[in-house]
Amino acid sequence: MVIGESKPLAEILEMIKDFKKVVVAGCKGCVTVCNVGGEKEVAILATELRIARKASGNELEIKEYTCERQCDPEYIEPLDDLVTDADALVSIACSVGPQYVVARYPYLNVYPGINTTCIGGSQEHGVWKEFCQACGNCIIHHFGGLCPITRCAKQLLNGPCGGSSEGICEVGKGSIPCIWQLIYDRLKNLGHLHNLVEVKLYKDWSTSRDGGLRTMIREELKK
Amino acid sequence: MTAGSNLEKILKSGHKAVTCECGPPRGADAEHFRHKASFLKGCGDAVNVTDNQTAVVRFCSLAASKILLEMGLEPVMQMVTRDMNRIGLQSNVLGAAALGIKNLLCLTGDHQSFGDHPQSKNVHDLDSIMLLHTVKTMRDEGKMVSGTEVQGRPQMFIGAAANPFADPQDFRVVRMGKKIAAGAQFIQTQCIYNMERFRHFMEMANDMGLTEKAYILAGITPLKSVGMANYMKKFVPGLDVPDSCIARLRGVPKDKQAAEGIKLAVEQIHECLEMKGIAGIHLMAIEWEERVPEILETAKLVPRPKVD
Question: Which fold has domain A2-118?
Fold first, then answer.
């Protein structure tokens, strides 16, 4: 799923400082699962903004709404009534959401209320981690099912580099495991270490964002 | 002979080679670089020119290599894959060859989080092993990564780095073998302090036949002080500085530590040169170029042999 983290309240307050009527819009997709942009977080952010503005003597009128999904035009429509007299909208969906809102409302000021951090998963309660960079051509099966493009700081396909020490990556002040140690250990367990002897050559990055904006069309699904 | 560089000739003739290192400055002061490099004249068979080492911006290795050529020193131009994609890298390889640079060391480079621009993007379109393959293919097959024909092949003597002290230990030699398979003709190792571990690494390299396929130069960095030794041990990832080295420096008064460090380096040089499969040494006297002549004289490695 897409993982995000809340922007600091002060940053959001600064974004909307000139406005009196604001919509806070969440999403019931990924950001609900990672506890950053769902119904609950919409209510919390709205309350925090109200309190802060009241304290500064500049009261704010807020409407709250959480879309089924903010990455689908039909689920943006329910915002129509809420935004009619609004000055601005703060979206706490991943950054896809506010861009869908922008597409539907050409005259509305739209602000991101969270930072979209990565494609990843949860590790334990309150801990999420990145696993994929959406390079568009998955090759993890060559690496024991682990992704060095995402999880190696240097994106090595022929790792590990000289900065791997006791299973820890030199980047991240000791907090990040060396994915190449994990790849090595896993291939050793599977009896496939010979896979690592072969030199891996150039990756074609044209399927990644380097090839330009990616659009997927499934003709059989189009009406 | 592939490039006919002095370094290649020395190694092919069977002499133990000596390479030194000179880092370009953090500014456009060419005089400063010339001054540092001047100490290395006559010391080594070639001088490595680092490419924004530790991810700190310095003037580029291509320009610094050209300055060495003008001074009559032979450069080993270092290139890292951190800052350029395959377009930039290949362009620089061609440009370097056009300027008469004949030795190239292919590296991935230190992560930018260690340098002076931790906010920068990194590239890593290729890694060091792919860059080795790229240069070899341009030179031997006249083809770029894309298959485009090279008009005028870059004649390079191609090198790589190896770190015998990182993990997983058993894989370090295998990875050096990958570098050799991809195109490395010579290897310069990370600074060696733990002789036992390095000896073990070299035994594996010999067993795998790697020392028959490439020239391995043992990396030596003299320790200037206890402070430097502690720093290397604690903060430089993938370095193994045994406590015995630190204890030895600590055993002499502060004003004698540098001399003791040099004595230790000379012993390390001799110990490495006696190991089977070692083709020479790579002396990295970090910001201590002026002491290189003394170290090599004590080690009886100067004057350098002349080979045609």
Answer: Rossmann fold (3.40.50)
